[in-house]
Design goal:
Length: 87
């Protein structure tokens, strides 16, 4: 009878150990950023010429006086450049 209780106790310990391992594994998986990396690739930038927001990978980037600007179109980039050099 005592042996049976010991076995039961051992089973209980193993059960708890396995359960903890499974929970830990699930926690670790949730820490891995899966969705946030997709949001990061769709970064929005502001066109300083017409004040519209465009995705960074679709925007036209220009370096004016050492600073990077993003535009929705070449026309905006050109107009902004002219405005900057005029002032
Ligand atoms: Zn624009």
């Amino acid at each position: 009878m005592r042996r049976f209780l010991l076995l039961l106790f051992l089973f209980f310990l193993v059960y708890r150990l396995v359960k903890n391992l499974l929970i830990n594994r699930r926690d670790r998986r949730s820490l891995v950023p899966g969705d946030s990396s997709q949001i990061g690739s769709k970064e929005m930038v502001k066109d300083p010429q017409c004040n519209t927001y465009i995705p960074k990978d679709e925007a036209i980037s220009r370096r004016i006086r050492g600073q990077s600007y993003y535009f929705c179109s070449k026309e905006c980039a050109q107009r902004f450049k002219e405005r900057k050099s005029a002032s």
